[in-house]
Design brief:
By secondary structure, this protein is mainly beta. The protein contains no helices and 10 strands. It has a domain at about 45-113: RNA polymerase II/Efflux pump adaptor protein, barrel-sandwich hybrid domain (OB fold (Dihydrolipoamide Acetyltransferase, E2P), Beta Barrel), CATH 2.40.50.
Length: about 110
């Protein structure tokens, strides 16, 4: 144990810190793996995740016609809901994720042709 004195807003506090060595903290259980994404069709505009997060909702279906700026999906990251917008006019060629899936930055979400 090491003792320290900390002053916060003019008030002094004594604290003790214990150094933990040897045993690593228990890791949180891994989330369920998302289903394997289908292969992306060649020649389409790929829409990827801009940040790690969880897909809250998929607003389009495969084969749907979309316009630039349409909301494709809702991605929750850092307690904020982010709309994933369509980058161009076209048709949804494939959807490579599902509602509730955990995604990393750069993960392929869908393809627009």
């Amino acid at each position: 144990m090491k003792k320290y004195r900390v002053t916060v807003n003019g008030t002094a506090y004594e604290i003790e810190l214990e150094e933990l060595t040897g045993a690593a903290p228990a890791a949180a259980p891994a989330p369920a793996a998302a289903p394997a994404p289908a292969a992306a069709p060649a020649g389409g505009e790929q829409v990827t995740s801009p940040m790690p997060g969880t897909i809250l909702d998929v607003k389009v279906s495969q084969g749907a016609s979309v316009k630039k700026g349409d909301v494709l999906m809702i991605l929750e990251a850092m307690k904020m809901e982010n709309e994933i917008m369509c980058p161009c006019d076209g048709k949804v060629a494939s959807i490579n994720t599902s509602k509730g899936a955990a995604v990393e930055s750069g993960t392929l979400l869908c393809v627009i042709q």
